[in-house]
Task: structure prediction
Amino acid sequence: MSIILQTKSLSKIYGKGDNEVRALNKCDLTFSEGSFTSIVGRSGSGKSTLMHLLGGLDTPTTGSVYIENRNIYDMSDSERTIFRRRRVGFVFQFYNLMPELTAYQNILLPIQLDNRNVDKDYIDEIISMLGLRERLSHYVGELSGGQQQRIAIARALAAKPAVILADEPTGNLDGKSGAEVLELLHLSRKRFNQTLIMVTHDRQIAEGSDRIISLEDGCVSCDSEVNSL
Result:
């Protein structure tokens, strides 16, 4: 499989001198197209920092991130915003939906922000796959947590991204809803050949991925294929 995402000496340092904190320290990682990787580690190990840097939501102190052979930190802020909106989908623990919009409007938001035409057949396929047909006209406050996360997944998929970054996507859900969301992420990855990178505290979830990367004090402490565990 071809490499879709790569980091080189990726570091993030907060503060200076005695107050310096190395949230991420010279991480060199590669991710293959269509793969599913789990990022694990204790709180403060650098998981969310890594995810934010992979997706261009923060700026590294040193190092680079390549997505589809393009260094996203060589781009201007506006170029990176457009690239991120088109090629990276985000799924967060707390959904980050717009409460004043309907479910359908939330799904279409990234495409409309980009002033692009909506591929209605593709959006319809996502809606069917995620079982959202009966919820499209509902506002966020009228949806359960599991339904809101499905909407968030649909929004992440709407722009046909190459990479999906999921930060504790089941962390705010009950066991049944969490299992359903995880199954849907698996299904969408396989159907659309997307690379899924997920932060999780749940070892059982991690062991359902292709690969587990463990972080400790901002460094990769273990990088293992799941079949070899």
Notes: The helical segments are 47-54, 77-87, 103-113, 120-130, 145-158, 175-192, 203-206. The longest helix spans residues 175-192. Residues 103 and 135 are 7 Å apart (CA to CA). The beta strands are 3-14, 21-32, 36-40, 62-67, 70-71, 88-92, 163-167, 195-199, 211-216, 219-225.
